[in-house]
Known about the structure:
This protein has helices at 2-31, 66-74, 94-109, 125-134, 158-162, 188-211, 226-231, 242-252, 273-300, and strands at residues 53-59, 83-89, 114-118, 144-147, 172-181, 222-225, 256-267. By secondary structure, the protein is α/β, with parallel strands linked by helices. It has a 7-stranded mixed sheet, sandwiched between helices. Helix 1 packs across helix 6. The longest helix is centred in the first third of the chain and has 30 residues, at 2-31. The chain starts with a helix and ends with a helix. InterPro entries: Glyco_trans_2-like, Nucleotide-diphossugar_trans. It holds the Pfam family Glyco_trans_2_3. It is a multi-pass membrane protein. One of its GO terms (molecular function) is glycosyltransferase activity.
Amino acid sequence: MMLSQFCVVLFMIQSLDRFILGIGCFWIKLKKIKPTVDGEGYDVEDGSSFPMVLVQIPMCNEREVYQQSIASACQLDWPKDRILIQVLDDSSDELLQMLIRNEVNSWREKGVNIIYRHRFIRTGYKAGNLHSAMSCDYVKDYEFVAILDADFQPNPDFLQLTVPHFKGKPDVGLVQARWSFVNKDENLLTRLQNINLCFHFEVEQQVNGHFLNFFGFNGTAGVWRIKALEESGGWLERTTVEDMDIAVRAHLNGWKFVYLNDVKVLCELPESYEAYKKQQHRWHSGPMQLFRLCLPAILKS
Length: 301
């Protein structure tokens, strides 16, 4: 009986949360509220007016998508001398490593500022990969870092639509774009996932971004101010949700987040139940690990 009553209380709390979020989303749509950019954009004729941006593509054994992800990043509309693309390959397949390295070399020959990076000691999964990449000496020359997972394909204007939101706002640490799914109508599983994630992006993140200046980083399709990452402790390997971890620590340090519901980055949903189950296990077990680790800091803040 105690357990059932506890579950009822949790259900009521979640229902109230959903109701408040729904009202907030309705208000945003009624008032047509959108994040705005302070001042004018960057001068196209003066490349030096654009900030230095680092683009990171973490991947591990991504044989099916590595070409399209690298191609999408290399076609981003940004001055060539103000951008560096890091392909962070944690693949264990030596043949695949060679293929990815060759793909990087072919784009470099076309004039793209891109480098290939492979770790010999592959610890810490994605968090370890990103932490290792941020330790490079040349990172100090860059102000922002855009993170794009291997199965994400941004439009060429992705940086043009996201980076200007940092302008004149020194307290903004993250600008997050929305995910858009190319295979949402593939089967019943993808359709159900699309409904669930559309609520997450359209309602949860948009409302929290507007009213609280905070939401969980989605791990990709976002741009960080490197100073915010460094002051918040950088990427840690202590949980399986390194994205949520850094978001909580950054928010506790006073950094604000901006969510852009109109800027969409293409990606794919898991189409099989096994792939979906693995994803959901990580998404649900990681936050519980993080809750235990961060609760004392949250209570003290």
